[in-house]
Amino acid sequence: MIKVLMIEDDAEFAEILSEYLSQYNIEITNYEDPYLGLSAGIKNYDILILDLTLPGMDGLEVCKEVVQKYDIPVIISSARSDVSDKVIGLQIGADDYLPKPYDPKEMYARIQSLIRRYKKAKSSQESSSIESDFRIDEKRHQIYLKSQPLNLTPAEYEILEYMIKQHGFSISREQLVYNCKSLKDKGSKSLDVIIGRLRAKIGDSSKNPKYIQSVRGIGYKLIG
Question: pLDDT tens, 186-211?
Fold first, then answer.
């Protein structure tokens, strides 16, 4: 069963959604008071559906607090039509924004999609952290080296993220270029520049590599 925490001050709306989703083995627990919702044991739920117009506390503040403290998918469900609300909500860490009114079928589809994404992300994090000094936080678009956040450009992040997920395996230069959407110049020289910058940022050396090893005739391998 998927357990959903909902913070929504429209009790009738919450009840309608709850009844619809129950047929898919999804259980909703709703709190009209955001303060009660925040103290409801968030870590025990699989996903949060959050309204923005709440009594006593703005939904964006609730979202910010949840994202900072918990690793849980957040869907903002709101009748507020201001585009800036949507932009801010996604910027501070919400995973999705569904404007009211909407068909419950769409909420069901989005819940399923987010749950799948989170399970996949957690699986890759666990597998990469078993033997590696690196850890990926895909939600925050951040990579850590021995618990220290790395300051990476978009291209550096995409290259290192791919290498972490392929930890211990040789990766061709073509694979790295293909999987780096931020790489404007698709030539090998640009990849060499990015690898060089990555090595500098992680304290690595091409002559005596601790993390990024050159594989002659192929490409690279992450070994640390």
Answer: 666 788 899 999 999 999 988 889 99
Distance of CA 22 to CAs 16, 46, 50, 111, 195, Å?
10, 15, 18, 13, 50
| 40-74 pLDDT, tens digit each | 999 999 999 999 999 999 999 999 999 888 889 99
By the 8 A CB rule, do 3 and 45 touch? Answer: yes
Structural domain containing residue 46:
2-122
How far, in Å, CA of 27 to CA of 58, rounded?
A: 25
For residues 89-105, average pLDDT: 90
CB 63 within 8 A of CB 74: yes
Residue 118 CA to residue 75 CA, distance in Å, equals 13
One domain, residues 104 and 166: no
Last residue of a domain, one of 72, 93, 122: 122
Closest alpha carbon to 127 in 2, 222, 45, 43: 222
